[in-house]
Amino acid sequence: MSNKIELTTPLSDEDVEKLNIGDKVYLNGTIYTGRDAAHKRLVDLVNEGKELPFDVKGQVIYYVGPAPAKPGKPIGSAGPTTSYRMDAYAPTLMELGMKGMIGKGNRAPEVVEAMKKHKAVYLGATGGAGALIAKSIKKAEIVAYEDLGPEAIRKLEVEDFPVVVINDTRGNDLYVEGAKKYSKE
Amino acid sequence: MREVQTDEITKMVRDLFIDSNCNIGDDLLAAYDKGIETDESPVAKEVFKELKENVRIAREEHSPICQDTGLAVVFVELGQDVHIVGGDFNDAINEGVRQGYADGYLRKSSCDPFTRKNVGDNTPAIIHLEIVQGDKIKIMAVPKGGGAENMSRVHMLTPSQGIEGIKDFIVNRLKESGSNPCPPTIVGVGIGGTFERTAILAKKALLRKVGERNPDPKIAEAEKEVLSRINKLGIGPMGYGGTTSCLDVFFEVEPCHIASLPLAVNVQCHASRHKEATI
């Protein structure tokens, strides 16, 4: 555990396959934001056979609804939201080539299975550390669903965005292993 | 009878929500320090260091600690000798929320439950009003995030389940919540009252500072026991594994019906934000 790895998006199968649970990863490049309402709209589009507002292939989606940006800043506080609410939608996006999800909290077994099948990873950002995480976001631009306010899809340019690998492409789970190691029940 | 202008109430609510969201209590910083010192997991120590750094940045830049600046929960202790003048009391509080969330660059999270359309100004406030003696108004602002709130439960136990049933339910709730509520958590527990009263007690318990025990020694012992049991679960900060899964457990207890044993578990994240002021 605890290798330090730098990755630049878009990600390939090889990029994600080398990751293990507990690895500290610093992301660079472009990532997209999306949470509850945006995910519903994206998957509705897929089900209707329509094109998505951005190409999800090789991409990473960050589950976040940022606070408003102060004047002169690209974004406000921007920590992760709880991921299980996106579980219903995540496998569809992985089928389309999404390689990573950033959030916090446990994923459903179907999502972990989909990560194995489609070669994708789930990355944890430190929940509640929104002011700190915002420092690694250099640019933010709304690319879809502006009407959703904090839930609009934003394209973020990130530098050394800090995450930890929670689920790798082999079905391992840091939450399960971590608790096992320190449980005194 | 002392007159208080609604404008004063609005200003105070505005300031409290900005301050509580950007400037966390020193009791929590001390708890993070203890985590750095005592947690057995090196990863956990790193998380605590990140949380400290986050608090430092938030204070320096006057930006919110967490992007989820919550729904605006407001506890009010209204002195019975106060006469409120200049407008409607509830409107004054909601206007304070509106101004605080706009001026403080706080995220507006309130939405229609069905269409999910954002209300746009984070109103209405969730107001809990209590009339007390005196001619002062005490207002406590609690911005409450959604992630930890979603892990909360109200459960009606049978009286035979007793205190052991209560302890088991709380520990299991935190075990099942795992990494979701941004551990290490703070747990507000309401015991007694009715279905709705016990939930308000649990929320009110979150107003305490870390380390502040219930004045009843038996209840204080139960708080400590539940805290210790949650910390043995191994969840750790952010669920990455560790020996600090919970920072404190607070019980608030009131009498209940002879047929009932109402229990509410209100889960709070490590960024337990609350501030109070008095007019």
Can you put this structure into words, describing what you see?
The complex is a heterodimer of chains A (185) and B (279). Chain A has 185 residues and is an alpha/beta fold. Chain A has one domain: Fe-S hydro-lyase, tartrate dehydratase beta-type, catalytic domain (fumarase), CATH 3.20.130. Chain A has six helices and seven strands. Chain A has helices at 13-17, 36-47, 90-95, 109-118, 130-134, 174-182, and strands at residues 4-8, 24-33, 60-62, 100-103, 121-124, 137-144, 153-167. Chain A has a five-stranded mixed barrel with strand order 2-3-4-5-7. The longest helix of chain A has 12 residues, at 36-47. The radius of gyration of chain A is 16 Å and the shape is globular. Chain A starts with a strand and ends with a helix. With 279 residues, chain B is of the alpha/beta class. Chain B has two domains: 2-20 and 65-144, no CATH class; 147-272, no CATH class. Chain B is 40% helix and 25% strand. Chain B has eight helices and ten strands. Chain B has helices at residues 6-22, 26-38, 42-61, 89-103, 146-149, 162-177, 195-205, 217-231; strands at residues 2-5, 71-79, 82-85, 126-132, 137-144, 153-157, 185-193, 246-256, 261-268, 275-278. In chain B, the strands form three sheets. In chain B, strands 4-2-5-10 form a four-stranded mixed β-sheet. A four-stranded mixed β-sheet of chain B has the order 6-9-7-8. In chain B, strands 1-3 form a two-stranded parallel ribbon. The two termini of chain B are 14 Å apart. The interface between A and B is large, with 48 and 49 residues.
